[in-house]
Amino acid sequence: MSALLEVRGLSKRFGGLTAVRELDFDVRAGEILGVIGPNGAGKTTTFNVVAGAYRADAGEIRFAGESIAGLPPHRIAARGVMRTFQDNVLVGAHTRFRRRLWSIVLGGAREEETRQRERAQELVQFVGLGDALAADVTTLSFGQGRLLEIARALAGEPRLILLDEPAAGLTPAECTRLADIIRGIAARGIAVLLIEHDMHFLLPLAHRVVVLNFGAKIADGLPDEVRAHPAVMDAYLGAHAARH
Description:
Elements: E1 5-14, E2 17-27, E3 32-36, H1 43-51, E4 58-63, E5 66-67, H2 73-78, E6 81-83, H3 101-106, H4 111-126, H5 142-154, E7 160-164, H6 172-187, E8 191-195, H7 199-202, E9 208-213, E10 216-221, H8 223-227, H9 230-243
Parallel strand pairs: 3-8, 3-9, 6-7, 7-8
Antiparallel strand pairs: 1-2, 1-4, 4-5, 9-10
Helix pairs in contact: 4-5
């Protein structure tokens, strides 16, 4: 199966600091690709370059066979690459439905608006927030807010969803529920690029794993292969074990 997202030679510098150095990786449709590494490894920078928040200094990013390098975030989102934000789930529909957002929220009479509202309700159910469907978002717990972020991103009908440390701050029970949701997303044929610091959450979940350290890729493979890689143990697993 050909890659949906192709990243080749990606580099990003901030002044004299190289945050990402000549990075290569692919993500296929329906695949969960995990990106791990210690703090400062370049994970979130990679995420932000792919999403268009930062412009790469070198390299190529191709999505569905077309270059998206240098495009602004809204144009990348319109092509089917969505990331998570804290917001009302209906807002995500703006990449597919170009009317005023208030008309979607209020539920106008047009048939397409009704479909968008039904889609939003289905996604809220999908992430396990059906009981809170009528709740004000300000009343949601931290964990529920994370799930709503995912529902909002899915409302844009993505082909690739970018999740940046979605398990941070969640309880073990919430992490279990989140992992099930991410598997469900992949089962729908949506590619998932999952950046995570917690390897205990990521390794059982990801189909493949890329490991970064000081901005460079030091390993790339199946979770068990990565877990046993000497460079990973030295750079990441060993440091993690020392803290525990």
